[in-house]
């Protein structure tokens, strides 16, 4: 296996990880920002007020996008397994 092939596989894997993690983290980040602005405007400093909405949104993102996340992982794994003969020889 040449170094270029290894770098391409690693690049694709890292890009997939970034996309999958972003799909879960970005909604939580946006809700955290909205809650932080709300807390700053109302001077409420309750820790659970910032934690609970982010937890709920993260779980909802996993529930709603779970099928897509798993499909992306399966597509990458199938493509990786299918490319084994061309990479080995």
UniProtKB/TrEMBL annotation:
<feature type="transmembrane region" description="Helical">
    <location>
        <begin position="13"/>
        <end position="39"/>
    </location>
</feature>
<dbReference type="GO" id="GO:0044780">
    <property type="term" value="P:bacterial-type flagellum assembly"/>
</dbReference>
<comment type="similarity">
    <text>Belongs to the FliQ/MopD/SpaQ family.</text>
</comment>
<comment type="function">
    <text>Role in flagellar biosynthesis.</text>
</comment>
<keyword id="KW-0812">Transmembrane</keyword>
<feature type="transmembrane region" description="Helical">
    <location>
        <begin position="51"/>
        <end position="70"/>
    </location>
</feature>
<keyword id="KW-0282">Flagellum</keyword>
<keyword id="KW-0472">Membrane</keyword>
<keyword id="KW-0966">Cell projection</keyword>
<protein>
    <recommendedName>
        <fullName>Flagellar biosynthetic protein FliQ</fullName>
    </recommendedName>
</protein>
<keyword id="KW-1133">Transmembrane helix</keyword>
<keyword id="KW-0975">Bacterial flagellum</keyword>
<dbReference type="Pfam" id="PF01313">
    <property type="entry name" value="Bac_export_3"/>
</dbReference>
<dbReference type="InterPro" id="IPR002191">
    <property type="entry name" value="Bac_export_3"/>
</dbReference>
<dbReference type="GO" id="GO:0009425">
    <property type="term" value="C:bacterial-type flagellum basal body"/>
</dbReference>
<dbReference type="GO" id="GO:0005886">
    <property type="term" value="C:plasma membrane"/>
</dbReference>
<dbReference type="GO" id="GO:0009306">
    <property type="term" value="P:protein secretion"/>
</dbReference>
<keyword id="KW-1003">Cell membrane</keyword>
<dbReference type="InterPro" id="IPR006305">
    <property type="entry name" value="FliQ"/>
</dbReference>
<keyword id="KW-0969">Cilium</keyword>
